[in-house]
Amino acid sequence: MKIGIIGSGRMGGTLGKLWAACGHEIMFSSRNPQSSAIQELLKAAGKNAQSGLVKEAVQFSDVLLLALPPEAVDPFLEEIGDLNNKILINATNRRDGKSAGTEVIRLAKNGRVIRAFNLVPWEILSKPKYQETNASIFIIGDDSEAKEVVSKLCKDINFDPVDAGKSENIVPLETAMGLLWKVFSPNFGRDYSFRILRRNQGI
Q1: Closest by alpha carbon to 94, among 115, 71, 116, 64?
Q2: N- to C-terminal Cα distance for the chain?
Q3: 2-188: CATH topology
């Protein structure tokens, strides 16, 4: 699968490297694809990775990972325009009181938006195993086919995908997980996650 990484920092860079190691074709986007930071990222990601401008990454991809800083999300979506039915994995968060999940859906023109990876620290992406189990990734969206694609990408890097319903659940889940973060992070820092135990494994 061809995956465009929009935001090649810690979250985007780590996921891109992991998916490249699984055999997916990755394009890391940057306003300066020849920068030393991007070249180091390409070296670490290996032969399945390349770099390009943001618009090139959008054109290249079957799936886009949106992992930009909060202040860069709205300008990107306004600039890029029509996403032509591409799957857009929204891993962003906001600090202005608005929901990053609902705002991206509102602004992503003709994008099949799936909310995922926003509720895990980037530090655990490359080490999702905890003792004998692995961490869950919550997936929210209204497009069942797109959710299946994102679920497979989660499984590829050893996460447990959990279907958390449709877009109406975005704000409740963001709110609940934000409260849990405040409770647990003082004791556990950023090296913790959640696992949903269920009788019916689902996706």
Answers
A1: 71
A2: 19
A3: Rossmann fold (3.40.50)
